[in-house]
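Board notes (copied after class):
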Amino acid sequence: MVEVALRYGASRQSVSTWKARYEREGLPALEERSRRPHHSPHQLAGVNAVEFDTVLAVSGVRNVLPRAQRIKMGVVHAGQLAHVWADEHSVHILIGGQLIRTLPSGLSTEDIRELRLRGAVPAGPPPADLAAHPNRPDPAGSRTAP
């Protein structure tokens, strides 16, 4: 097997894998295969996520998208600049870089698309991921949207 690997410029492990596939499945097993993983748990969260900065209303209520999702933040946060991270699964509200609230999202893929049209930008990792990885730079932008 070492001679075959050297002859074709492949690793011994690759030749061994090809041989096992051939023995198991025949010639079709040697056709080119995708290297894409079958499962990527981090890809599901935030695939269509957006983020934007907004000032919370005097009432303390934030309409992420008026017909789709309203968030009561309380008058204690009224007038403060908040950073919103949202996708179809969750909405995170940060004030001063601190995660203040996380709640289930009422947004659809179409709602996310509308937020993008209103100026929201593609999001980095969810804020929960930032807490788990404190050395990762904060992807929060400074654009104001919806």
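Comment from the instructor: Confidence is low (pLDDT under 50) at residues 130-145. The first strand starts at residue 50 and ends at 55.
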